[in-house]
Amino acid sequence: MFRVIMSMIAALVFMSLLASVGIAKDPEFEYTIPQATVAPRIDGKLDDGLWKAFEPVEWGNINEGGEVDEDQFSRSWAAYDDKFIYVAFENLEPDTGNLLTAVKAHDGGVWEDDENELFIEPANAGTQPYFHIMINANNVTEDSESGGADAGWEPDLESATQVYNDNWVLELKIPFDDLDIDEAPVGEMWGWNFNRHIMTGAGIWTGWSLTGASFHTPDKFGVLIFGLDKAAVDPSGKLAGTWGNIKDTR
Question: pTM for the complete prediction?
Answer without folding.
Answer: 0.85
